[in-house]
Amino acid sequence: MSTNNRVLIFDTTMRDGEQSPGASMNRDEKIRIAKALEEMGVDIIEAGFPIASQGDFEAVQAVAKAVTQSTVCGLARAAKADIDRAGEALKPAKRKRIHTFIATSPLHMRVKLQMEPEAVLKMVTESVTRARNYTDDVEWSGEDATRSDHDFLCRCVEAAIDAGARTVNIPDTVGYTVPDEYHALIKMLKNRVPNIDKAVISVHCHNDLGLAVANSLAAVQAGARQVECTINGLGERAGNCAMEEVVMALRTRKDHMPYTTGIKTELITRNSHLVSTITGFPVQPNKAIVGANAFAHESGIHQDGMLKDANTYEIMTPESVGLRKSNLVMGKLSGRHAFRAKLEELGYTLGDNAVNDAFKRFKDLADKKREVFDEDIVALVDDAVMRENDRIKFVSLEVICGTKVAKPSAELELEVDGVVKYAKANGDGPVDALFNAIKELTTNSQHLQIYQVHAVTGGTDAQAEVMVRLEESGKTVQGQGADADTLVASARAYINALNKLLVKREKNAPAAMSA
Ligand code: KIV
Ligand code: ZN
């Protein structure tokens, strides 16, 4: 099957990515991300782990209904109930895949599964066979494959393919392997597994040693034709292989790696921002491809070279990842038509209500801010759309602070389940006073772990983008908020995190979920 050079892109932002502490996504957020991934040309979208909770089941089901071009995938352990639940959730999908996995390394089998290898092997066959009752498109993964015994791994892969798996995934679950070793492992499987030509070899790399992208590329060069990855490299612990990096590496170094993907790279920046806004995980400025500095040239020597010929210091164009020069878009006199056209140009297709809300916020922003840039509109629209179904909504805020005030105070109005509530609170500083007021109006057993502010654009009138991380009983959530007023942005971020906490309280992940 791997005679061609087309590499399938399997996105697991909504499954492995969601396993990052704090990165929960609700059903509507998953639909938004899924549609963005589909538009981007992702081949397979892993939408979740249906047995994990009712919320996860419904999210996978909703994505299965919403997506028509990409294959929608659900994860299942090698257990009947898991597979049946995944099969059920995926029922509405036009193209569906069940991804079933079991650990194959001696350590995982002995300590986690407490099973003998022969029993694991039997479960490989049983799980794939059961999954085939729901779809012909079954993927099998040997968890911790890179620390598995080669002979045993070969037997498992062969059994999975015999039972009907069309894709066999060889995960580096703990981010332990290195490129030449992983290359050799894939080659070994190609040489030794007799029926390997009947399946696509997939790779799934974690980034514990910062090698996830390098390992994935090495595996492609050895014959793998599916790469599992996430937007912004989100994922368990140090994350997964970053989609934008692996795709741009293949595109930029075609001379050395003659493989193609179906990804429209021009949508990379937009989707990176979308995932960052929804999960509340900011992108570090020096992150490859999507960091704010990825295409910035500061030093005089570099700027001089760039002015003479961009190729001197730029190996790919900003436009190829969807970055445009910051251009002044509109001011407070711009009308609704121009605003709608701008939204379309930025890749948004919103309903009338959402456009009206966003337009109102744009007008408010244009009143406060002299120049409104594309980045401002993206921040504002993502912020507004993200909140459509929130139970707790921001209404108004007045903060009194400064050196002449003995104790800063915040007067706040929130809408909680449709009812507007008011509170006034003091604090050690304005942010403390504001957060205390929020706590008075909501169920409050959460702790603030992180509070971060950054400016969306340059200038003192820039919008502030605030990230807040809350913790409650060992569960963490992140929220984001944007506004020209830093305190309003802070309120929005805290409320965004609280709304996620409400969803999280309903979720109950099953034991031994260690993908
Ligand atoms: O890291 C891992 O092994 C996984 C599997 C479920 C593919 O996420
Ligand atoms: Zn994983």
How would you sum up this structure, described in words?
By secondary structure, the chain is α/β, with parallel strands linked by helices. It folds into three domains: 8-279, Aldolase class I (TIM Barrel), CATH 3.20.20; 336-385, no CATH class; 392-504, Double Stranded RNA Binding Domain, CATH 3.30.160.270. Helix content is 39%, strand content 20%. The protein is built from 16 helices and 16 strands. It has an eight-stranded parallel beta barrel, surrounded by seven helices. The protein has a three-stranded antiparallel β-sheet with strand order 11-12-13. Strand 14 (447-455) and strand 15 form a beta hairpin. Helix 10 crosses helix 14 (374-386), helix 13 (352-368) crosses helix 14 and helix 15 (430-441) runs parallel beside helix 16 (486-506). The chain starts with 7 loop residues before the first strand and ends in a 9-residue tail after the last helix. 49% of the residues are buried. Residues 508-515 have low confidence and may be disordered. The protein binds 3-methyl-2-oxobutanoic acid and zinc ion. Zinc ion binds at residues 16, 171, 173, 204, 206, 236, 515.
SSE topology sketch:
Elements: E1 8-11, H1 27-40, E2 44-48, H2 54-66, E3 71-77, H3 80-89, E4 96-103, H4 106-113, H5 117-132, E5 138-143, H6 150-162, E6 167-172, H7 179-192, E7 200-205, H8 212-222, E8 226-229, H9 243-252, H10 268-279, H11 300-308, E9 328-330, H12 336-345, H13 352-368, E10 372-373, H14 374-386, E11 392-400, E12 409-416, E13 419-426, H15 430-441, E14 447-455, E15 464-472, E16 475-483, H16 486-506
Parallel strand pairs: 1-2, 1-8, 2-3, 3-4, 4-5, 5-6, 6-7, 7-8
Antiparallel strand pairs: 9-10, 11-12, 12-13, 14-15, 15-16
Helix pairs in contact: 1-2, 1-10, 2-3, 5-6, 6-7, 7-8, 8-9, 10-14, 13-14, 15-16
